[in-house]
Amino acid sequence: MDKSIYKRILLKLSGEALLGKGSYGIDTTVLEFVAEEIADVKDLGVEIGIVIGGGNIFRGVEASTRGFDRASADYMGMLATVINSLALQNSLENRGIPTRVQSAIEMKEIAESFIKRRASRHLEKGRVVIFACGTGSPYFTTDTAASLRAMEMQADAILKATKVDGIYDKDPVTDKDAIIFNKISYTEMLTRYLKVMDSTAVSMCRDNNLPLIVFNIEKKGNIRGVVCGKPIGTIVTAS
User: What is the pTM of this model?
Assistant: First the structure.
């Protein structure tokens, strides 16, 4: 029987993970698949926090290059994460999994405000907590928010879900000769300029000795496999 090697994880989902084959919005089939994968891990007794991006709806960085004020564009991106968070909450609760959305920007009618102790208590009680609105400040990505929330929640690891099998030396989408790393250090990620996470998020993980596993979310059973210690994706450590 599978057994998790982690008690508490922080799952980082990109907004693009919910796109499916579309170019915008949420593919409900993909959303249901992701919720089912999370539910499968919850059955192992793992405490799960989730940070989700909003790139399937609005990307603040890209908008800022087209004339948007960067701060305003980033706030718009944060609001997009709320839409994704509520959608995922709905799918999880349809499976009988109690879920709370906590927002870094106050919007009390639809989400709790982020309070560290309350979030930790939800996790202890077996609720999934989805952290919306990133850090609540512009100029910080949801990757950085994932690193921050993982440390605040004292997670054992960050699981970064992507559309590829792990971290490569080159972009595997455009370069078929790209080589995957089974294991790599945060320092090497920075020196090689591997853009899996932004440098602020990588540095925070390195400085706090927080393990990161990068894996393919599109393969059924991968999240469960990662939390059970199977050789899936790329493991990133401080050394």
Answer: 0.95
Q: Give the number of domains in the chain.
A: 1
Angle (CA) 154 157 161, round 5°: 130
Contacts 24+ apart (CB under 8 A), 22-31: 24/56, 24/57, 25/56, 25/57, 26/56, 26/83, 26/84, 26/87, 31/87, 31/88, 31/91
pLDDT digits (tens, 9 = 90+) for 198-229: 999 999 999 999 999 999 999 999 999 999 99
**Residue 159 within a domain:** yes
Question: Is residue 31 one of the residues assigned to a domain?
Answer: yes
Cα distance between residue 86 and residue 94, in whole Å = 12
Beta-bridge partners for 128: 99
Structural domain includes residue 2:
no
